[in-house]
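Subject: complex prediction, re-run

Hi both,

The earlier run crashed halfway through, so I resubmitted it with identical inputs.
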Amino acid sequence: GAGVSQSPSNKVTEKGKDVELRCDPISGHTALYWYRQSLGQGLEFLIYFQGNSAPDKSGLPSDRFSAERTGGSVSTLTIQRTQQEDSAVYLCASSLNKRETQYFGPGTRLLVL
Amino acid sequence: GDSVTQMEGPVTLSEEAFLTINCTYTATGYPSLFWYVQYPGEGLQLLLKATKADDKGSNKGFEATYRKETTSFHLEKGSVQVSDSAVYFCALSGLSSNTGKLIFGQGTTLQVKP
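This time it finished cleanly. Structure:
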C-alpha cells in the first residue's frame, strides 16, 4: 500500500517568510510524528499526534513552530518568520499506535536564504 | 534524559568485510531499540528492532542483540556489499516518554568499496 508522503519535497524560502509542510500518513495509522534532520543537531523529535488527543509539542524549538492534524489524518507543520537555522530536512512518520513501528516519509528539504 | 551514542563515522570497508557499528544508550527501564537505515536519496527505513533484553533483531544479514548489562545494541554484518552503503541510525523509544517518540544517535555513514 501507499507509504507516508510529504510535500513539497524541496522548499527554498527567504528569511522571514512563513512556510507550510504537509504530511499524509499511512491510512489507519493513529500516531503521527514530525522530526527534523539537520547537520548540527542530527535527528530530533518535534511533535507527536495520537488520534484526537492533545499533541505532545515538547520538541518544538520555538513558538515560531506549530503543527496541526486535521481529521486525524493529514498534518501540516508551519514555521513562521523562518530563520536560516531552520534549514533542515523535516521528516514525518506514522505508526498504528505509539508502540508500533514508525514508517517515515521521504522528507521535505527546507532551505532558508 | 534518554540518549543514544553511536560510533563516529565514516566507516569505509571493502566488499565482504565484517561490519560492526557500536551503539550504546542511556534510558530508564527497558526501552525498545532500533536500527534505521537511510540509503542515498531515500527516506529512513527500519532495518531491525528488539524490544526486550537479550532479544536479537535481524534483517538482510544484519543483526543486533539487546544487551542490558552493557546498555548496548551493536549492529553487525558478516559480509557487507556495495549496496549496504548508507547512513545507519541507532534509536530508542523509552519509557520516560508516553509518546513512543524515537531518540536517535548521530548516525554512522558506511561506504563499501568493491
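The mean pLDDT of chain B is 93.

- K.
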